[in-house]
Design brief:
Elements: H1 7-23, H2 28-36, H3 47-65, H4 72-89, H5 92-103, H6 115-130, H7 134-144, H8 148-154, E1 159-162, H9 172-176, E2 181-189, E3 195-204, H10 210-217, E4 221-223, E5 226-227, E6 230-231, E7 237-243
Antiparallel strand pairs: 1-4, 2-3, 2-7, 5-6
Length: about 250
């Protein structure tokens, strides 16, 4: 799947892999992972486009699994991942509906302390906050018995509100000399959603794309996951940026 050169080849390879797993009676969790692993090779103009494509892939995997016996746990995982992608894309009503379906899964199938259930509850609370009802979100977490320590272990993802990088981030000297390259930066997210402590992890060519990427990422804004007033899972986030000249 990963070695395929285009989307058509990737789809064919994934279908072949799925058929093989079914013929060998592979565990359903393995099949669920294989249905989504390595299934995107597109370049997207926006973060929302990327997240909507992720949501589509998880929906396609759910459709393929169907009502396979024993797939309830894998289905809960796929629904949660689809919901998180929709949430990141800003499609909150659809994300909420999926998360509520996960939480409604019987405890015999998805135990009360299962990380998937906890993750769904945490993100429902985050959607409550984004929808202007933070007290409802906190009540939801309190009723579920989720503590800050559990939230930290689950490493809930901050929700991007503005992570666009414009063409002006491309260093003028690199354009003048027709340099292409990439940079990987790390940063933290403050309680108000602002990015802090941006630092270059690696850049190529060295000293060309690092500073411009740091300036661009410093303008990112997030809605960090919280429990009460405590911000969670927002340290050491990474961002890759690839610089390409137009054809």
């Amino acid at each position: 799947v990963y070695a395929a050169r285009d989307n058509r080849g990737r789809t064919a390879a994934q279908d072949s892999l799925d058929s093989l797993l079914v013929s060998r009676d592979a565990p359903v969790d393995v099949r669920a992972y294989a249905l989504v692993a390595g299934s995107t090779g597109k370049n997207f103009a926006s973060r929302s486009g990327y997240e909507n494509d992720r949501a589509r892939r998880f929906a396609a995997a759910l459709a393929k699994l169907g009502n396979q016996p024993g797939a309830e746990h894998a289905t809960a995982w796929l629904r949660t991942e689809q919901a998180l992608a929709l949430e990141a894309a800003g499609t909150l009503p659809a994300a909420r509906a999926l998360l509520e379906t996960v939480i409604a899964t019987p405890p015999a199938t998805l135990p009360q302390d299962d990380p998937i259930r906890s993750l769904a509850q945490l993100h429902l609370a985050l959607i409550d906050k984004r929808s202007g009802a933070p007290a409802v979100g906190e009540q939801r977490l309190t009723a579920a018995g989720i503590t800050p320590e559990q939230c930290s272990l689950l490493d809930v993802r901050p929700v991007a509100q503005n992570t666009d990088i414009s063409n002006t981030a491309f260093p003028s000297e690199a354009q003048r000399w027709h340099f292409e390259g990439n940079a990987r930066v790390a940063f933290d997210i403050a309680a108000d959603g602002h990015v802090t402590d941006v630092r270059t992890v690696i850049a190529y060519p060295p000293f060309v794309f690092g500073p411009s990427t740091e300036r661009a990422v410093a303008r990112f804004r997030y809605l960090p996951p919280t429990l009460g007033t405590e911000v969670l899972g927002c340290v050491g986030k990474m961002q890759n940026v690839i610089y390409r000249l137009p054809d």
